[in-house]
Inverse folding.
């Protein structure tokens, strides 16, 4: 009887511990879900400092779980610079703290498969250090900026294959042109090439997400970018401007400029791009990197172009630029196949490039079928299909189309 009582007591204690462990796991999961939603929301329910304290406790309770470190890094990043206008408030110690937390994620496992706020781990490391570098450049502190870029490179944030792709983008643009870029991996790769490698510094580059901030405006004008005639009024007026979907007519292409905020407004970035085109378009070439956030450029970049092409504005004309495939493209493609990345944000850019490559071949069918056949055969040799690009459903369709066209 005593033995049976002992066994029942042990069973009860085991069930109690199991229930406690399960409750803790459920509590952890609920905290992760709430933290992720809070970071993604435009109107946070919990202040960043309070959320950081909760996540710090979770990293102590579960030191081998990546998600808490990743979300904690993003939370401290928000404390370092809550929005683009506040980037000048970034500090080196906080940037280092964010980077070290992200590096902790990598030390647990080189691949992070948890949910993303925006960027994956390696891209976020680069974004943090490069943002601080840009802040220092705006403050005329080039040595400090150089330190930040070197930190990003040392800590795995800068990807050589991504840099090579962006060298190719710069090579496709005429001297003295203006380029509107989008996305941290794009903008900061271009900034790195110009500042650290002195590569194609004749091109004036502006990021579409930052172009409406006062500190970035001053930085651009001080570095040769044209004055926005509309900017002074933007400072005192509402962020949004009433707008109706309007087709802008250019020779060779009609561009639909959409009201991308609530179907009735455009934001600051859209107004500034329109202002730059109207005042400087007849004098200078403007390029808009395809794939940028349509809310920030009133949908223009998603009209009539494919990825890794540009909307090219010259005077009264606009058309899609699709640089012809050259030897550099083959080198990039081969490097992509060899490049090892555990970062989904970077892999997306790889996928964009491969998709562009195939789509360019497709655009030349059937008129140049005999040449495309040779290039597609080389494509399959250089870039064997170990994986399909994750973000484009028509990738397999394109492959099937070429295989059918060129079957023996």
């Amino acid at each position: 009887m005593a033995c049976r009582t002992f066994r029942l007591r042990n069973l009860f204690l085991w069930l109690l511990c199991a229930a406690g462990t399960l409750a803790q796991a459920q509590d952890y999961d609920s905290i992760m879900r709430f933290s992720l939603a809070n970071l993604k929301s435009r109107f946070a329910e919990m202040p960043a400092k309070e959320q950081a304290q909760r996540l710090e406790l979770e990293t102590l309770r579960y030191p081998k779980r990546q998600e808490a470190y990743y979300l904690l890094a993003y939370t401290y990043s928000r404390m370092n610079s809550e929005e683009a206008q506040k980037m000048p408030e970034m500090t080196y110690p906080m940037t280092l703290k964010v980077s070290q937390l992200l590096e902790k994620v990598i030390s647990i496992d080189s691949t992070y498969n948890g949910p993303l706020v925006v960027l994956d781990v390696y891209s976020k490391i680069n974004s943090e250090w490069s943002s601080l570098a840009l802040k220092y450049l705006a403050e005329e502190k080039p040595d400090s900026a150089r330190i930040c870029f070197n930190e990003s490179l040392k800590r795995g944030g800068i990807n050589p294959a991504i840099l090579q792709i962006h060298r190719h983008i710069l090579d496709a643009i005429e001297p003295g042109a203006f380029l509107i870029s989008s996305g941290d991996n794009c903008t900061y790769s271009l900034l790195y090439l110009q500042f650290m490698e002195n590569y194609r510094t004749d091109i004036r580059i502006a990021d579409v997400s930052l172009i409406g901030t006062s500190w970035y405006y001053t930085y651009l004008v001080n570095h040769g970018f044209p004055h926005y005639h509309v900017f002074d009024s933007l400072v005192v007026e509402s962020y949004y401007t009433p707008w109706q979907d309007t087709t802008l007519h250019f020779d060779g292409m009609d561009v639909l400029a959409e009201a991308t905020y609530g179907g009735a407004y455009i934001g600051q970035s859209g107004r500034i791009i329109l202002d730059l085109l109207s005042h400087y378009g007849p004098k200078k070439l403007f390029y808009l990197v395809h794939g940028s956030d349509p809310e920030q450029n009133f949908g223009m970049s998603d009209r009539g172009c494919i990825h890794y092409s540009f909307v090219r504005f010259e005077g009264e004309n606009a058309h899609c630029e699709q640089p012809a495939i050259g030897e550099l493209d083959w080198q990039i493609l081969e490097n992509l196949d060899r490049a090892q990345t555990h970062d989904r944000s970077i892999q997306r850019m790889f996928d964009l490039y491969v998709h562009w490559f195939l789509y360019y071949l497709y655009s030349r069918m059937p008129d140049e079928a005999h040449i495309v056949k040779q290039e597609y055969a080389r494509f399959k040799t250089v870039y064997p299909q170990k994986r399909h690009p994750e973000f484009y459903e028509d990738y397999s369709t394109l492959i099937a189309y070429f295989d059918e066209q060129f079957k023996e």
